[in-house]
Amino acid sequence: MPATRSETEPTLADLAVCLGCRAPLRGRDACLTCGRSYPTRDQILEAIGPLVGRNRINAAFYDGSGWVRFRKWERLFLTLQGGARRARLQILRHVLAIDRPEVRALEVGIGDGDNLAYLPESWDVYGVDVARTQLVACQERHPRMKGRLAWAEGENLPFADETFDVCYAIGGFTYFNDHAAALREMRRVTKAGGPVVVADETPGMHHAGIGHLIGVPAIDAFWLRGLGLDREFVEMVLQYDVDPEAVARATWPSATSRNIWSRLGYCLVHPGIEASG
Ligand SMILES: C[S@@+](CC[C@H](N)C(=O)[O-])C[C@H]1O[C@@H](n2cnc3c(N)ncnc32)[C@H](O)[C@@H]1O
Question: What Enzyme Commission number(s) appear in the record (predicted)?
Answer without folding.
Answer: 2.1.1.164
